[in-house]
Design a protein that fits this description.
Elements: H1 2-9, H2 29-49, H3 57-66, H4 68-78, H5 82-88, H6 91-94, H7 97-106, H8 113-131, H9 135-138, H10 149-163, H11 174-177, E1 182-185, E2 207-211, E3 220-225, E4 230-234, H12 238-251, H13 261-270, H14 281-292
Parallel strand pairs: 1-2
Antiparallel strand pairs: 2-3, 3-4
Helix pairs in contact: 2-3, 7-12, 8-10, 13-14
Length: 294
C-alpha cells in the first residue's frame, strides 16, 4: 500500500513503468484480412504495370517482398500453371534474378550454393568417381583439361545421367536423357520459335535450350516451357543456367521430368536440401562415393 501511494505522487516522467497502450483497431478479423488482401493486390498491380528498368528495380523487388506470403500460399494450395504464375507475376520473365531471391527466401538463404560448389567441389569429385566406373562412363571425362567451363559443365551433366540413369518406366535411353535437361538448336534460331520446335513436342517439363554450340562465343541459353509458352533467357554461362532452371522448378512448384528425377534429386544434395523423392537409393550411393573421393 505504501509503495502504491508513493507511486501516485510521482510525476509521469519519474515513473519507470507505463501502462501498455490499448489498440484502437477493434475491427473484426475478417475486415482486417480484407484490408491486407487489398493492399497486396495493389502491390501486384504495381508490379504488373512497372517494366524492367534501372529506375524500377527497387520498386519491383519491394513489391515482390510484400506479396511473397500470398504468392507462396497461392502456388502451394492452388497449383497454378507456369503460364498462370507468370501472368500474375510477369517480372519473373524479364528479371530472372527474382528467381534467386524467391528461392533464397524459400530455402533459408541457400541461393548461391550450387554456383559456389558445382565447379569448385562437385565436378572434381564427380570426375574422380567417373574414372573408376565402367569404361563408357570413364571415357566421358577424357580431355576435359582442354574444355571450356561450359563444356566441362555439360560433360559432368552427361556423366550424371550415366551414373543416375532414367528409371525403367520413363521410356528414355541413357544417351538421350541429357536432352531433357539441355538441348541444342542451330545458331540464328529465334527465341519465339522455340516453343513450336517439333523436336520439343515430347518435352512436357521446362528445360534448357542452347542456341548455338558450347564452343560458340555467341551461344545463348534459354529456359523453355513449351506447354506454357514460356521462354526465359539466362545469362552467365551453363552453370548459372542450370541453377536458374532448378530454382524455377521449386518457385513454380513443378515436378521434375521423370527421365531426370534422380539427377534433379542429386542437385538437391548440392543445395543442402532434404532429399524430396522416395526413389533415392542410387542418389545416396553416389553421394557416399563423392564423400570418399579425393
Amino acid at each position: 500500500m505504501r509503495l502504491r501511494n508513493i507511486r501516485r505522487k510521482l510525476e509521469a516522467g519519474q515513473r519507470r513503468y507505463t501502462k501498455r497502450k490499448v489498440s484502437c483497431d477493434n475491427r473484426p478479423e475478417s475486415e482486417q484480412e480484407q484490408d491486407e488482401s487489398s493492399v497486396t493486390s495493389e502491390w501486384i498491380t504495381l508490379m504488373k504495370r512497372l517494366r524492367h528498368s534501372s529506375e524500377n528495380i527497387s520498386s519491383i523487388k519491394s513489391a515482390m517482398e510484400k506479396t511473397y506470403t500470398r504468392r507462396r500460399s497461392w502456388i502451394s494450395k492452388e497449383t497454378p500453371t507456369m503460364a498462370e504464375i507468370f501472368s500474375e507475376y510477369p517480372r519473373f520473365l524479364d528479371m530472372p534474378s527474382l528467381l534467386d531471391i524467391e528461392f533464397g527466401k524459400m530455402m533459408d538463404g541457400k541461393t548461391d550454393l550450387f554456383i559456389r560448389r558445382w565447379e569448385a567441389s562437385i565436378i572434381p569429385k564427380l570426375k574422380a568417381v567417373a574414372a573408376i566406373e565402367r569404361s563408357d562412363v570413364a571415357s566421358l571425362t577424357e580431355r576435359m583439361e582442354d574444355q571450356t567451363d561450359d563444356e566441362k559443365c555439360y560433360t559432368m551433366l552427361v556423366v550424371l545421367t550415366h551414373l543416375l540413369p532414367p528409371l525403367p518406366g520413363s521410356r528414355c535411353s541413357v544417351k538421350s536423357a541429357i536432352s531433357f535437361l539441355l538441348d541444342f538448336v542451330p545458331p540464328g534460331t529465334s527465341i519465339a520459335s522455340l516453343c513450336s520446335e517439333p523436336k520439343m513436342a515430347s518435352r512436357t517439363q521446362p528445360q534448357l535450350i542452347c542456341i548455338g554450340n558450347l564452343k560458340s562465343t555467341t551461344r545463348q541459353y534459354i529456359i523453355v516451357a513449351r506447354n506454357d509458352g514460356v521462354t526465359i533467357p539466362v545469362d552467365g554461362g551453363l552453370t548459372c543456367a542450370v541453377d536458374k532452371l532448378f530454382k524455377l522448378y521449386w518457385v513454380c512448384n513443378l515436378s521434375y521430368p521423370p527421365q531426370l528425377s534422380s539427377v534433379f534429386t542429386f542437385l538437391e544434395y548440392i543445395y543442402e536440401m532434404t532429399i524430396s523423392t522416395k526413389r533415392r537409393a542410387k542418389v545416396l550411393e553416389l553421394i557416399s562415393k563423392l564423400q570418399l573421393a579425393q
